[in-house]
Amino acid sequence: MNVGIFLAALGVSMLELSEAGAVTAVYQGIYKGIKPTLYAVAGVLLVLVPTFTVGRYIVYLPLDYVLAVSAVILFYFGYRLLRSARRYFKGIRRGNVEEEKSDLAVVFTVSAVEAFEAALVLIALIPKGYFSALTGTLIASIVVVALTIALKDQISRIRLPHLKYVLSALLFSLGTLWAVEIIMPISDLFLLAFFFIYLAVNYGLLRI
User: Fold this and answer.
1) CA-based diameter of the chain, in Å?
2) Cβ–Cβ contacts within 10 Å for residue 32, how many?
3) Per residue in 126-137, pLDDT tens?
4) Which residues form a coiled coil (predicted)?
């Protein structure tokens, strides 16, 4: 086993998937049952299964098209999250079934996005040590699931409207970063700047 590849895969997978786990735990506390977990797992598998089955060929896909489609999806769900948060703060209510479908779609999308972030690194690691990268990712997944279960009660105390507000800013930020990358090279450090800008913009929209 290549220890360096293993540790890199373990680290990046834990970092990205833990965010998906935290979001899932919040929704799990609201919608009883296993639906949020199933949607989260589906989102992660949608990305990671192709990564480890045809990962070495993914690099041949035109990255600009992948980023463009991903950016549009992120903007769409960022908008849906912001709209849902605004309804709550304005005291507007929707049907429970419709709201649940929207929230579960968000869980799926956030999980897929976080898995995609990890996959960008894993694709570079796979050619140098497939088994090491796979093992690191599997162990990271197990650790994230265990931590999510252990900390579920604490995480689930986060208020959902506030989580939607923050997540919408995150999705808008990622969408903007990936859209800009199509035009010109840009450092990932700009993600933090975009995030705070969207936090401010979204806050203003919630107050209108």
Assistant:
1) 56
2) 8
3) 767 888 888 988
4) none
